[in-house]
Design a protein that fits this description.
Blueprint lengths: L2 E7 L4 E5 L4 E5 L2 H6 L12 E6 L5 E6 L5 E5 L7 E6 L3 E7 L7 H13 L3 E7 L9 H12 L5 E3 L5 H11 L2 E6 L6 H8 L25 E4 L4 E5 L21 H4 L19 H7 L5 H26 L3
Parallel strand pairs: 3-5, 8-9, 8-11, 9-10, 11-13
Antiparallel strand pairs: 1-2, 1-4, 2-3, 4-5, 6-7, 12-13
Helix pairs in contact: 2-8
Length: about 325
Amino acid sequence: MPTGRVLQSTGSWYRVLRDNGETIQCRIPGKFRLKDIRQTNPVAVGDVVDFKMNEDNTGHIEHIHPRTNKITRQATHGRKGEHVLISNIDQGFVVQSLKQPEFKTGFIDRFLLTCEAFDVQAKIILNKIDLGTEDDAPIVAGMMDVYESLGYPVIISSIHDPDSIEGLRAEMKDNVSVFIGPSGTGKTSLLNYIQPGIERPVGEISGFSNKGKHTTTFAELIPLEFGGFLADTPGIREFGLVHFEPAEISLYFREMKSLREECKYYNCTHIHEPGCAVMDAFQEGKIAASRYDSYINMVESVEDEKHSTGSRKRRGK
């Protein structure tokens, strides 16, 4: 039975790359759709699958190999559970632009937490650096200091700086990578320069909302001519968390993980309890204010989601 890697999913069809370089259009049987009700897509981009060939040269996926890791987000359009954006990756890049639209540390921190939880090496791309002025230099330096001190590389990039593009190529060579970020941050433009000849359509920034317009509709894993793969994903305005408990959140903040053991109470939330080592570190300036704010926002959002889910269950919905 042939084996291949899923390059693209359009909902009904899956484009699968075989080891010999041939791509096959495949479908999935209904049993996969019922296997895990927590996931909206039983087969994800990046999955390694076994399939049978049909007489019309299409394929029929029979088996999904175990995933080494994954990056997920909350299901959209009112659906329950999670949506797997990409699986079996070596590294994930969260792409943020310096301006148009401005970067959001909350989005970055949610992405980093997901990578920590699912064992994905995370890196940060600060794109459109050419739009910056001298006044932005301290902001950029402060951001880099926060994340690089935690072990997260921050890569400065611009399509107008060939050296930065070469640096990204070197980071991605022979790896399976993914770009994730809001629309308008320049993911597709970077991809066009990293892999010349793709010429994907690039959206404009909405003058009304200062947010990007979606150009990529479906996630796609693109083979790179210099070795490896890069997944281009649809723009995500909010990176929602799924299947996390409030007490787990601090486990995935590198600066909080070891401090948890020093708290006075074993079930400390690190928000209001006396004798909290995490709060003490924050007040002493050892934890960045932006990171602590992100932590509180995540805990509150997970608690709100649990309460709303409980209310729906009690109403029988």
